[in-house]
Amino acid sequence: xxxxxxxxxxxxxxxxxxxxxxxxxxxxxxxxxxxxxxxxxxxxxxxxxxxxxxxxxxxxxxxxxxxxxxxxxxxxxxxxxxxxxxxxxxxxxxxxxxxxxxxxxxxxxxxxxxxxxxxxxxxxxxxxxxxxxxxxxxxxxxxxxxxxxxxxxxxxxxxxxxxxxxxxxxxxxxxxxxxxxxxxxxxxxxxxxxxxxxxxxxxxxxxxxxxxxxxxxxxxxxxxxxxxxxxxxxxxxxxxxxxxxxxxxxxxxxxxxxxxx
Length: 261
Ligand code: IPD
Ligand code: CA
Ligand code: CA
Description:
Layout: H1 3-25, E1 33-37, E2 40-43, H2 44-60, E3 65-68, E4 80-88, H3 90-94, E5 101-108, E6 111-119, E7 124-130, E8 133-136, E9 139-140, E10 153-156, H4 164-175, E11 181-183, H5 188-196, E12 202-206, H6 210-222, E13 226-228, E14 241-245, H7 250-258
Parallel strand pairs: 3-4, 10-11, 10-12
Antiparallel strand pairs: 1-2, 4-5, 5-6, 6-7, 7-8, 8-9, 12-14, 13-14
Bound molecules: D-MYO-inositol-1-phosphate and calcium ion (CA) (2 copies).
D-MYO-inositol-1-phosphate binds at residues 69, 85, 87-91, 157, 159-160, 186-188, 205, 207-208, 212.
């Protein structure tokens, strides 16, 4: 399989679906917005965009299965799996806000082998196909060199269901408000990609799903960054715990925010 060639075709698909999202946002009406749960939105656009992705990716790699957010296609265990979020950042989207993105990862068995995250409004295409080969609009990506929490620029998110551990992490975050700049941008796939691009130094979030993180995490690792779960282990795609960083700041994030008292 020529991954670079496949990736350039996936980029075209992400761009087409991203343009669809951008055009539809202006047409969205209040009645089009449904709630899946408290402050968790969905629209026909999420589902339509997912169908567009599934049809196009199916043609590209007929042997691959799908793991998707909107379940417009059934999951089947296959060696190759597309893990996709057609619209990451729906809360921003339904409020007429940005950013939002299309997120596409290709997994081979347990390993991610490609990541594509596209922000159609900023026209930012983050991609990766192997270690050392991560790009933003075809320019090579590098993580930041920030080695301390102090003066760090750090993204995070608030999970839909906030348990005791999640609340504890938010309290720890608050204790660092005087030292670092924190941002909630509202699209996990992009926020992890921002770490890959050296825009931010780290990102953490609990309660995320594989389609939120798979593509971004791979892009970050290919750019020299680091991902872990909240125990420092590797279960960050399916384990609903994500710490993404430039590597240098990782241990301080773990010590003071994730595991700190
Ligand atoms: C959401 C976004 C958001 C994160 C949520 C996710 P969606 O994805 O990534 O930043 O805080 O937990 O569910 O619902 O917009 O695809
Ligand atoms: Ca998502
Ligand atoms: Ca989504």
